[in-house]
Amino acid sequence: MKLPRPYTVSEIANLLKCRYEGNKDQLITGFNEIHRVEPGDIVFVDHPKYFERALTSAATVILINKSVEIPPGKSLLISEDPFRDFNRLSSFFNPTIYNTTPISEKAVIGEGTVIEPFVTIGERVVIGKNCVLHSGVRILNDTTIGDHVVIQANTVIGSHAFYYKKRPDGYDRLLSSGGVLIGNNVEIGACCTIDRGVTSLTIIGQGTKIDNQVQVGHDTVIGKNCLFASQVGIAGCVNIGDEVILWGQVGIASGLNIGSKAVVLGQSGVTKDLEGNKTYFGSPAEDARKKYKELASIRVLPEIIEKLEM
Predict the structure, then answer these.
(1) How many CB atoms lie within 10 A of CB 116?
(2) Helix, strand, coil % in the chain, rounded to nearest 5
(3) Can you give the pLDDT at residue 99?
(4) Does 218 qualify as catalytic in the annotation?
(5) Which one of 116, 122, 159, 184 has the lowest number of neighbouring Cβ atoms within 10 Å?
(6) Which of the two residues, 302 and 198, has the higher pLDDT score?
(7) In this protein, which residues make up the domain named UDP-3-O-[3-hydroxymyristoyl] glucosamine N-acyltransferase non-repeat region (predicted)?
(8) Among 134, 148, 160, 218, the one annotated catalytic
(9) Coil, strand, or helix at residue 275?
């Protein structure tokens, strides 16, 4: 998330009531979780396993729970609870606003757009021209929708991310201060759920078509002209190229990269990055031809064993 103006390290330290190490006048222009961090950002880390990744990331300032060697050009914010203080940044710079009317007076809705009854549109929402929002659609805060977009009944766009920290007495949610960006000529089926970014954007590229009952996790970026069949489930922070096809009930784990023009056949489970221009099948998903050969071999295995025992 970008800040409304640059803040110094000392200003943010005062806001969070924590101490800092490094240049107190170093400028901060935003904050992001580790998958979407950029130069000028704050990133948080609270486990030694991930210290190196955070310290060597593009982040300018690291919100961390202990003093460590400071990489050149960076600063530290030392916090007893970085997760809590990252949430405090979200609450301060982008506080949650709950809808009190079905359609926010501040929503911007383009010419020719059709909104059926029982649609809810939140704060800081922009909807383009000639869109159709069917009954029961919910467009939540910080969502931008392009032109000629169709969203079928009871779909929810911009719900909070499924991102929690385990505590001794339960789970704490990481607050979502990002948004959703949907390109032109996108079609989204009924009863789909698209989470907003934690601090960045969940993006659906131009021309992509999504069937009913599809889940898209936070901060996932989907390319142009993709085709997703029913009951596809995509976890957070996945990068999907252009013209990717995911057939029914495909599941994709978080933080993966799917190359352009990849095809993943139905009921496959994707657990690692996939190259583009190939067809995949199985769980874990592999090259479809290789997987079919394996299945054929398994079918004749009892016959082979029977001959060996004779």
Answers:
(1) 12
(2) 15, 30, 50
(3) 83
(4) yes
(5) 116
(6) 198
(7) 25-90
(8) 218
(9) coil
